[in-house]
Design goal:
32% helix, alpha/beta, Rossmann fold, single chain, four-stranded antiparallel beta sheet, 268 residues, six-stranded mixed beta sheet, 12 strands
Length: 268
C-alpha cells in the first residue's frame, strides 16, 4: 500500500446512489462504490449480483440511469469508453481482447498505434512496451515480438494488464484475471496486481476466488442482488463473513465503510 493511500484515504473513483435498469429489471439499486489510489478493492458477489453491469457503467459501456459518478473528487459524466479512458480508467475484461495473430507490441498498441509521418513508429512502440513491462517487473515473456498465440494463459493476462497501464492509467479494473489459470500462473498474476497498487494505481479486482481476494485486496466490496451489502477493509473480516455477505447480503459484526442499500427485508 502506498503512503498516498494510507495518509489521505481519498477515493479516486467514487459512485453514489447508482441505479441501472434494463427494461423492467432493476439491476443496480442505489449502489455506492469507491476505489482508492494505491489499493486493491475486490468487487465480489454471486452470479447476477450486478458486478459486470457496475464495471460496464464505470467503463461507459452502459449509461447510468441516476446517481453520481465522481473522479478525483469531481463529478463527471461518462458517455462512452473513450470518456472513461480519457479519465484514466482502463478495464481488462475476462476475454482479454487480444489478437492471436499479432505480437505483444502490436497488441499493446492496438487501435492507438504511434506513427512517424505515414508509417508506424515500430521502434518507439517497442521501446515503450518494453519499458512498461519492465516497470511491472514482468520477466515471463521471452520477447515483446512473440505472437500472442504462442503465450500461456498467465502471459496473456500479463500482456492485457500491461496494455491497460500503458496509457497513464489511474484506475485499472480486472475482470476475473485468474479464472482460467493454474496455480503458478495465478501467483504471477496476483503478484502483478499487487505491484500495480504499490505503484499508486487504484485497482479493482472482480473475482469469485476468495483466496485470491484475501491474498491481494485491501478492501472488499460485496454486491447482493444489485445492492451494496458492505464495503470493508479486508483485514477486518474473515472469509466466512464475506461468503455470508455474498449469499445473504448481511452478516453479524461487519460494518460497512460506505453507506449500504440492501433492503431491510433481506435477512441473514
Amino acid at each position: 500500500m502506498t503512503a498516498n493511500a494510507t495518509e489521505n484515504g481519498t477515493p479516486i473513483l467514487q459512485l453514489r446512489g447508482i441505479n441501472k435498469s434494463f427494461g423492467p429489471v432493476h439491476v443496480l439499486k442505489q449502489v455506492n462504490f469507491a476505489a482508492y489510489p494505491g489499493q486493491v478493492t475486490a468487487l465480489v458477489g454471486d452470479n447476477g449480483a450486478g458486478k459486470s453491469t457496475l464495471i460496464k457503467c464505470i467503463g461507459g459501456i452502459h449509461p447510468i440511469d441516476s446517481g453520481e459518478f465522481l473522479f478525483e473528487g469531481k463529478q463527471v459524466t461518462v458517455h462512452g469508453p473513450r470518456d472513461a479512458s480519457a479519465l484514466g480508467i482502463e478495464i481488462v475484461y475476462q476475454d482479454l481482447a487480444l489478437c492471436d495473430n499479432l505480437d505483444v507490441v502490436q497488441n499493446m498498441f492496438l487501435g492507438r498505434e504511434q506513427t512517424t509521418s505515414i508509417v508506424l513508429d515500430e521502434a518507439s512502440m517497442e521501446e515503450r512496451a518494453a519499458k512498461t513491462l519492465k516497470s511491472l517487473s514482468v520477466r515471463t515473456l521471452r520477447s515483446t515480438r512473440q505472437l500472442v498465440a504462442s503465450l500461456s494463459g498467465g502471459q496473456r493476462q500479463t500482456v492485457a494488464i500491461a496494455k491497460a497501464v500503458l496509457w497513464n492509467s489511474k484506475v485499472v479494473i480486472l475482470d476475473e484475471p485468474t479464472a482460467a489459470l493454474g496455480v503458478a500462473q495465478t501467483e504471477q498474476v496476483l503478484a502483478l496486481v499487487r505491484r500495480l497498487a504499490d505503484q499508486g494505481l487504484a485497482v479493482v479486482l472482480i473475482s469469485h476466488n476468495l483466496v485470491d481476494v484475501f491474498q491481494v485486496a485491501d478492501r472488499i466490496a460485496a454486491l447482493y442482488l444489485g445492492q451494496l451489502a458492505a464495503e470493508v477493509k479486508a483485514k477486518d473480516v474473515r472469509q466466512p463473513q464475506v461468503v455470508e455477505l455474498i449469499t445473504t447480503g448481511r452478516t453479524e459484526g461487519v460494518e460497512s465503510e460506505l453507506p449500504t442499500s440492501v433492503d431491510e427485508g433481506v435477512t441473514a
